[in-house]
């Protein structure tokens, strides 16, 4: 849960009329990298948070990715990675992905072999 709290605090540093997605990759209790969704315009995504985060991590093998979606009203929403981000995380050697699912900080989990 501490990583979701960290992600929520980080999400407050970014504004968007609809939603902010933030991802961090951790291993051994340390943050290896943090990334945010990037925007092309007021209502379109340029880059997903998972990809932005992976670009900041040199070695993600065996690590865990944590993903949080914060809506403009401050509530938390479903942040399950899309298929392209899922494939990129798997290719980077990420072992587990945890993401927010509901307005409370509850999470879903995907484990990659």
Please identify the top-level CATH class: Alpha Beta
Q: What is the total number of structural domains?
A: 1
The overall pLDDT, averaged over residues, is 86
- Report the CATH topology name: Cytidine Deaminase, domain 2
Global outline: globular
Helix content: 10-25%
Give the tally of β-strands. 8
Structural class per helix/strand content? alpha+beta
How much is the radius of gyration in Å?
13 Å
What is the first-to-last residue Cα distance?
Answer: 23 Å
What is the CATH H-level superfamily? Cytidine Deaminase, domain 2
Quickly give the CATH architecture: 3-Layer(aba) Sandwich
SS field, number of helical segments: 3
Residue windows where pLDDT falls under 50 for at least 5 positions: none
Largest sheet data? 6 strands, mixed
Strand content: 35-45%
The H-and-E topology, N to C, reads as HEEEEHEEHEE
Question: What is the gist of this entry?
Answer:
The chain has about 110 residues and is α+β, with helices and mostly antiparallel strands. It is built from 3 helices and 8 strands, in the order H-E-E-E-E-H-E-E-H-E-E.
